[in-house]
Write a structure and sequence with these properties.
By secondary structure, the chain is of the alpha/beta class. It has three domains: 6-48, no CATH class; 62-158 and 292-318, Response regulator (Rossmann fold), CATH 3.40.50; 160-290 and 321-344, Response regulator (Rossmann fold, 3-Layer(aba) Sandwich). It contains 13 helices and 13 strands. The chain has a seven-stranded mixed beta sheet, with helices on both faces. The protein has a six-stranded mixed beta sheet with strand order 7-6-8-9-10-12, sandwiched between helices. Strand 3 (118-122), helix 7 (128-135) and strand 4 (141-144) form a beta-alpha-beta unit. The longest helix is centred in the last third of the chain and has 17 residues, at 291-307. The radius of gyration is 25 Å and the shape is elongated. The model is unreliable at 331-350 (pLDDT under 50).
Length: 350
């Protein structure tokens, strides 16, 4: 038996094809007609042709989420939150890996060729070339990250400056006088703002000895490779701040390989508070940057932009929250996570 058609549904319900179509598409129709049409559709096993509906409405009912590294747990957490929001509005999510800055432009251009109704992008590097490509996209765009204020995009930002201040203050409270910061590449948005945040946090503690190095990437292996030279020295730091949890796990591995006990011989902190931070041993003290909240807000901004294309651009900042675990204070294992707060239109860096 072939697939049921709208004509067959209309015939069984005893209404016109136009009335059946209105009833199934949520348009104006009497309650009696809607009930009869839906019953007929259920009896026949009628399924609407999504392609035809998309062409008719001028929409694909697909939204894209473009990130640099789809394996990074932060992006996965954001993606899950985005998916939950848009699914409730009848949209599907397409995930795309952008890679480096030049690849980001290619992905943006491809996604703008009628494949999607909107784009959420979390670029590691914001270049003039990328901003030009985003401005030319004919569908709404929301940026997870920081772009120039006059770019005109809805944006959702983390606050790296406050995050770094929280973690530096915590380590100083733990009586550490020699800190090292292992950053990711400083030509990336998170790398630049976390570098600036570290410098700003140290200004409040002029007696603290501090140094910083840049890992090759925001990965476990890069964190390990950057940590080994620091920890092999006679004057090794008392605490290491990692620019994200992946680098932090690399530092924990390096400490273990060198026979150092965490936190007795070395304190370690991360940033992002991913699930990884809670499952490693000792648990990794980290700053919750509100990844799920950022994803949720980005999805809501995109849906609002689709519904109202001419609305003013919004900037939403998500506040960080330090989560203390056993990598800095052994008695702090199991400290509860505090949900990050959201401040709409607050101008923060990060």
């Amino acid at each position: 038996m072939g697939r049921a058609t709208i004509t067959q549904v209309a015939t069984r319900a005893g209404v016109s094809i136009a009335s059946a179509s209105r009833a199934l598409n949520g348009q104006i129709a009497s309650a009696e007609t809607v009930a009869k049409v839906r019953q007929a559709a259920a009896e026949l096993g009628y399924v609407a042709d999504a392609t035809a509906q998309s062409l008719k409405r001028g929409r694909t009912f697909q939204l894209a989420y473009a990130v640099a590294d789809i394996g990074n747990p932060v992006y996965v957490e954001m993606m899950t939150a985005i998916q939950q929001v848009i699914a409730a509005s009848g949209y599907r999510l397409i995930l795309s890996s952008t890679g480096d800055a030049s690849s980001s432009v290619d992905v943006v251009r491809d996604l703008s060729r009628g494949y999607v109704d909107g784009l959420i992008i979390s670029p590691l590097r914001v270049t003039d070339h990328l901003l030009t490509a985003l401005a030319a996209v004919p569908v709404p765009v929301v940026v997870l990250g920081r772009v120039p204020e006059d770019a005109g995009f809805d944006t959702v930002r983390a606050d790296s400056l406050t995050a770094m201040r929280q973690v530096v203050d915590h380590l100083v409270e733990c009586s550490h006088q020699h800190l090292a910061f292992i950053n990711g590449p400083v030509d990336t948005t998170p790398g630049a703002f976390r570098r600036d945040g570290f410098a700003g946090a140290l200004a409040a503690h002029p007696a603290i000895r501090a140094e910083s190095v840049a890992a090759a990437d925001f990965t476990i292996n890069a964190g390990y490779e950057a940590a080994i030279p620091l920890l092999n020295r006679d004057d090794r730091p008392q605490a290491i701040i990692a620019a994200n949890d992946l680098i932090g796990v690399g530092v924990l591995r390096a400490a273990e390989d060198l026979g150092l006990s965490v936190p007795r011989d070395l304190a370690v902190t991360g940033i992002d508070n991913t699930e990884l931070a809670s499952v490693v041993r000792p648990g990794l003290t980290s700053v919750d940057m509100g990844a799920a909240e950022r994803g949720r807000v980005a999805a809501e901004l995109l849906l609002a932009r689709i519904a109202e294309p001419d609305r003013a651009a919004h900037t939403v900042a998500v506040a960080p929250q330090l989560v203390v675990r056993g990598s800095t204070r052994s008695e702090a294992a199991g400290h509860p996570t505090v949900r990050a707060a959201v401040v709409d239109n607050e101008r923060v860096a990060g």
